[in-house]
Amino acid sequence: MSAISAKTLEHYNERAAEFWEGTRDHDVTQNIDALLRHIHDAPPLRILDFGCGPGRDLSAFRMLGHEPVGLEGSPPLAAMARKHSGCEVWEQDFLALKLPAGFFHGIFANASLFHVPTRELARVLSELHSALKPEGVLFASNPRGSNEEGWNRGRYGAYHDLDICGARALLSSARPAARAAALACERMAEEDSPGRVVASLENDARDHCVDIFERSDGTFGFEEYRRDHEDGKGWFALHRFARLMFTSEAEALAQAKERVAWLAA
User: Fold this and answer.
1) Which pLDDT tens digit goes with each residue over 90-125?
2) I need a surface site. Which of 86, 134, 225, 257 has the fewest CB within 10 A?
3) Whether this model's pTM surpasses 0.85
């Protein structure tokens, strides 16, 4: 396991500046909102940005009046995060965490947990759960793939077709606390999971796409995705459009064109 971490971190160490330039303008407001709206404690909230990278989201949480702490395994990225956000950043390996118990109101794991090998995921989730306050919330967003796991362009990653798959994989082996977290993730995934994809449209650069899907109840929806900047493999959902419901594929497509600028061009 240590070799997996070392090689993946080496990749980020060598490309820290490039990674910052490639991701600094990504808008993940919808993910930040998804975490904060499920936390019922009064602000300011103590938030752990798990895999904070160069500090983009740390800055966002701080600007919202919260008390974020970053966790990053790459020393160059951790240094950039401190500089960009002015926040405390802990340098820790995802597979060798040392976190205070019951400390955080929320944990924001945006595009980070997919680097944890599946066989270690239950343990890592349990450790994150232990770092949360009793009513704390973990948010995780990961690139979508086709259930592949392994090395891709110098990084180790697990790419599931739906977040729900990762949650179900934990249920048989995780400790009770992690099983509860996995079940909560499964319920959230079921609420947001698309149905059968009936059309998939990509932009000219092939780094964004819109999927039109049909649910089991006969309604339709859509979502926009962004291709992973680093390896071009996984896809990240960009919005919460998947919750919208339409009566036909044509109506869903028309609404997608109204909401996604490149699709309407």
Assistant:
1) 999 999 999 999 999 999 999 899 999 989 998 999
2) 134
3) no
